[in-house]
């Protein structure tokens, strides 16, 4: 173990082992902060050996940022995150983001009043929902009062998540290496959200005290800021999207928009590759000539019987699928954490309508939810002209967002198995089951050997 060394010194220690015969502890003993900084200036900054910076690990605690800003942080791959949970914590009514420029404007009071009312209704609805569950939720055999109260609270939090606005404040723990951190900061600094730009600058100044050389050149990414296509050059929204917005009722949608029809043959070839003596092209040609029963037997032998948390074979990464997922922002908040996927999310707006779970009517919250949705959307439209970015803070997590979701089979199996489990939130459980169901229809030969995904009937029956 390398202990009690600054992150930059650890990075240099590991980097030097490629050319030094000395053991790690002797390399580290000969380094100082100044020598480490000089090394990084020359090799990482000067010659672009950025992989060295991956050995410098930081643990960053980010407090009091909006859910919108937390999503910007969690876009960074090769990182680890833990965020304040909407299931296990009840959010305080005064804790929402106050955009400085907006609050200083004539529209500041409009925003403040709306957010206070949204958060107050979240708290009042939470009390009502917890009381309803205490009366209607069946107790488990020998369940203690504390455990029962915890289940009532967790289920209530899952329901009331739809009432939270995107500007609700949250906390986030971020473990990241200096290379990814520098890139992340360079993206934060070009965000249309002033909050995210300010957050990026604060993270940079904090990180400089630990990795002074590796992040001091993290500046706004001019290349990324110059990219983009004008909306006027693209097709308008589809009629059914406007219809959803007019009706005001939407559901989560998962559509498989692209996949490789030859994907199963490629997966079987990849599964067999390490055991074969021939080249890949010859092997793939051989697999294509086999009967379905012969392919099925090869897949069965190669995949075996994975248990609940066994990782699937890496060969399953040899085919992928592109989905278009339209879901409530709260559900996207969860599925966005699967960073092995490529996710291209659009900006949140009321255009695609919202999700209203059936249980809201049972609890007696439908009318309250309607009023809060209308207030949320009205505030968004009032702010949008002068504050187009900040307007998003007022939208409830129940409003829908659309994302392009590109995922390989191995990650899809992990995603579906994890996110369809009964303890998960109903919104993303349905997404996981629908995603896996469509992959199963496309490639049944392989997926029949990948058990553990809960069926849609189980999700529908369990609130």
Largest sheet: 4 strands, antiparallel
Rounded mean pLDDT is 90
In terms of DSSP E residues, the strand content is: 5-15%
Principal-axes shape call? globular
Q: What is the structural class?
A: alpha+beta
Q: Roughly what percent helix? A: 40-55%
Distance between the termini: 46 Å
H/E series, N to C? HHHEHEHHHEHHHHEHHHEHEHHEHHHH
Radius of gyration from the CA trace? Answer: 25 Å
Order the strands across the largest sheet as they lie in space. 4-5-7-6
What's the tally of helices?
Answer: 21
Weakly predicted, low-confidence segments = none
Tell how many strands the DSSP assignment holds. Answer: 7
Characterise the protein shown here.
Among the domains are: 7-65 and 170-226, no CATH class; 87-163 and 356-397, no CATH class. The model has no long low-confidence stretch (mean pLDDT 90). Helix 6 packs antiparallel against helix 17 (366-384) and helix 18 runs antiparallel to helix 19 (426-442). The chain contains 21 helices and seven strands. It is an alpha+beta fold and 463 residues long. 49% of the residues lie in helices and 11% in strands. The strands form two sheets. Strands 4-5-7-6 form a four-stranded antiparallel β-sheet.
